[in-house]
UniProtKB/TrEMBL annotation:
SUPFAM superfamilies referenced in this protein's UniProt entry, alphabetically: Ribonuclease H-like
UniProt GO cellular component terms: cytosol
Gene3D superfamilies documented for this protein: Ribonuclease H-like superfamily/Ribonuclease H
Protein's name in the database: 3'-5' exonuclease
Listed GO MF terms: 3'-5' exonuclease activity; nucleic acid binding
Signal peptide residue numbers: none
UniProt entry tagged with the keyword Ligase: no
Coiled coil (UniProt feature): none
Length: 252
């Protein structure tokens, strides 16, 4: 029997707001990335998107972001009718992926994904491309200019398919630098920030700040900041580098 194809599905959602149950999905987009016979990952298929009836009005503040109106989704199917075939298709995907995947995971529950692992391209970008001045999906698009991206297919911004299409190019390049297993591992951890986000040390690398400043960040409310400060503390105690490791071998 032939081995199952190695495919990861990138997901992007447009919603009525930040989190369920107060808010719901009004559009889902997807784009697959597949491991080729030459051992390189590439985009696979055309991808797509579906409008979803969120079962509640879309607030004007949210419409101003994605421009999806109540009238556009009035006759669209419900989320539970749309989600499962997209999130758990056949053949089964090795993992799902999204930029800042914790947002998508709130709506794409384990029951809908059949417990699929997620890759967060934001967290992986922090590890693989720490020299980037920014890490949003669109900033990385124009900072890195991924090879082969069709500009118009990545527009308009803040619609589900174009955003998934852009993210898929980031994921493809990440998978050609690090293994699936490594990306999943990084995605399960808090984000490892390459530079200090705020305060007198804003913009500095963590290795450049003094011990008192580092101690203060260990108590920060932001999980990513606390984690990064802890990693830097361990580095100072001889536990290893805070910067991204060397290229990982392909495990999948």
């Amino acid at each position: 029997m032939a081995a199952a194809p190695q495919i990861i599905r990138v997901i992007d959602l447009e919603t009525t707001g930040n989190a369920p149950p107060a808010h719901a999905v009004c559009e889902i987009g997807w784009q697959d990335v597949k491991l080729g016979g030459d051992g390189r990952w590439e985009l696979d298929g055309e991808g797509g998107s579906r409008l979803v009836n969120p079962g509640r009005p879309i607030p004007p503040l949210t419409m101003a972001v994605h421009h999806i109106r109540d009238v556009d989704v009035a006759d669209a199917p419900w989320w539970h009718d749309v989600a499962r075939p997209i999130l758990d298709p056949w053949p089964r995907r090795v993992a799902l992926a999204a930029h800042r995947a914790s947002f998508e995971e709130q709506f794409c529950t384990s029951a809908l994904t059949r417990g699929a692992d997620w890759i967060c391209t934001y967290k992986c970008a922090l590890r693989l491309w720490p020299d980037s001045p920014g890490f949003s999906n669109q900033f990385l698009r124009y900072y890195r200019m991924p090879e082969g991206m069709e500009h118009e297919r990545g527009l308009p911004v803040h619609r589900a398919f174009p955003d998934a299409y852009v993210t898929a190019h980031h994921l493809r390049d990440m998978l050609n630098e690090a293994s699936v297993a490594q990306l999943i591992e990084w995605s399960k951890l808090p984000g490892l920030l390459p530079r200090v986000r705020y305060g007198p040390d804003r913009g500095k690398e963590w290795s450049e700040i003094d011990d008192d400043s580092l101690d203060a960040f260990l108590q920060d409310r932001d999980e990513d900041i606390r984690y990064t400060a802890q990693v830097e503390l361990e580095r100072r105690r001889g536990g290893g580098p805070v910067r991204a490791p060397a290229r990982q071998p392909q495990l999948f």
